[in-house]
Write a structure and sequence with these properties.
- The complex is a heterodimer of chains A (about 300) and B (about 280).
- Chain A has about 300 residues and is mostly helical.
- Chain A has helices at about 15-55, 60, 75-85, 85-120, 125-135, 140-155, 160-185, 185-195, 200-210, 215-230, 230-235, 245-255, 260-290.
- In chain A, α7 (about 160-185) packs antiparallel against α10, α8 runs antiparallel to α9 (about 200-210) and α12 packs antiparallel against α13.
- The longest helix of chain A has about 40 residues, at about 15-55.
- In chain B, strands 1-2 form a two-stranded antiparallel ribbon.
- In chain B, a hairpin with a 6-residue loop joins β1 and β2.
- Chain B folds into two domains: about 5-50, no CATH class; about 55-285, Orthogonal Bundle (MetI-like fold), CATH 1.10.3720.10.
- Chain B has 13 helices and two strands.
- Classes of the chains: A mainly alpha (about 300), B mainly alpha (about 280).
- At the A-B interface, α1, α4, α5, α6 and α7 of A face α1, α3, α4, α5 and α6 of B.
Chain lengths: ~300, ~280
Amino acid sequence: MTVTATPSRTAALVRPVRTRRRPDVVRSRVAAWVAVGVIGLFGLAPIYWLLVTAFTPDEKAFSFPPSLIPTEITLEHFVNLAKNEKLFGYLVNSVVVSLITAVLSVIVSAYMAYAFSKFRYRGRTSLMHLVLASQMFPQALLLITLYALFSATGLLGAYTALILSFTTFTLPLCVWMLKGIFDTVPSSLMEAAAIDGASRWRTLHQVALPLSAPGLVAAGLFAFVRAWNDFIFALTLADPERQTLPPGLVHTYLGEFQTAWPDLMAASFVVSLPVIAAFMFLQRYLVGGLTAGAVKG
Amino acid sequence: MRRLSDAQFAWLLMLPGLALFGAIIAYPLVSALVTGFFEQSLVRPGRLFVGLANFADVLGGDFLPVFRNTMIFTVGATVAPFVLGYALALALNAGIRGSGVLRGLFLFPWVIPGVVVSFLWLWIFNANYGVLNGILGTHFSWLGDPDTAMLAVIVTKTWASFPWMMVMLLAGLQTMPKELHEAASVDGAGTIRRFWSVTVPHMKGIAGIVFLLEFIWNFQHFDTIYVLTGGGPAGATKTFAVAVYDTAFKGFDLGHATALGGLWMLLLLILVAVYLRHEKEDVR
């Protein structure tokens, strides 16, 4: 694409002005590339380094100065991971907790979002704002009495404590995301169902929910990622053998005499994969949800 | 069965969610604020009412240094990614080739789990084998020195959050009508002039919200700081989140932890109130 191709229809009318603008456009495009280059280096070099370390043999990784371009590649760190039974246990915990959190979040937030979207009643607006604000309370403070509460009810250490907490913390965003989606389901469809004799429950389950399926999947993925990534609650509320990968990795690798950095980078890579996959799908929902249809496509 | 009114049906739908909010957020929050007035241990049962003693202790002790650290971290870790994210959004919006692919690529630091972010930068900052020291030819302990630890933590958090800023601000830029810029340049406004007179006013709403949200999140951020430094060295990176957590779960002192937490909450509530007002105005 050439620079002259960008100015639009008005260009023909203002030819002299456009000619004067050309160096301006070139300059801002050069500036754009410089910005992308500098910030890109900052943004992507660490990820490059994670990958390089994960595939570098120990004796090379622990040499100084490190070579920026790998000279030797190995899979030994991934083999080490696969052989580590404790890590496998953490992985199972992560999968169980995140999956159940995702399903529970979708169910609870869909009902709530539907109530917010399709009915008008006293207290609705204030409640919506409260839901939005609730994600901003300091979790380190909540954790103290949650610990006591779960301890008193005998739930401390079990999956339940984690799942209930994570589900609650995903609700604000899931509810807002799904409310936006239910808002786009025309009320006339529901009225039609009601005229055909469907109860409100049937209308909800057989009309509104199927039409919102992609949104439900997005909300579920978001909740899954939230549970998968959490550190502080999993660290504090779960027994050592019930902990998920983030605190599990800290226990396994940090605080030792010498951290096995390449193994840890390999583990980090593996832990990040499901999240990256989920976000590739989620990207447009998150942006779209927060900017409310302002972006095309 | 008697048919429910619409309002009753709506409340029934909200019941599970409200129950969770009550049990996991509202009750613990109120209970924590009450605990601030008691002397109570995490490991021993029973408690003793001590009035404002915990608050007095905290205000005379931890509060000021912790508040200072929290503000330094919050301002640094909000302004830096905001500037980087804004610059990147402007660059990607300037119509350069492959900006869609680049946007996806730049999301990675934000997408990967927070603990992984911490591991990665621990390794980069490592005094003996770290790549940063490798490039500089030094063996400096970035996270172990009270003078640089906070800076290192801010760099790490900046890295993890600038992509979110970029995405949100880019979305805002893309809603800006092209005609505005064209009209301004016909009137003879240069790039810089157009940025201040066209782009900035158009972006005020979204920029304000992302800045405020990031500020609120950083004000209570825990993961990165805790894994990178644990609040050290010599308390140089001890923010509210770390101080409250450590007082409760390492010192087992619930009274002082929740008193400090109560003061922290108060400051946060002010921020949240500002956010909600902003949000309302924006919705209108």
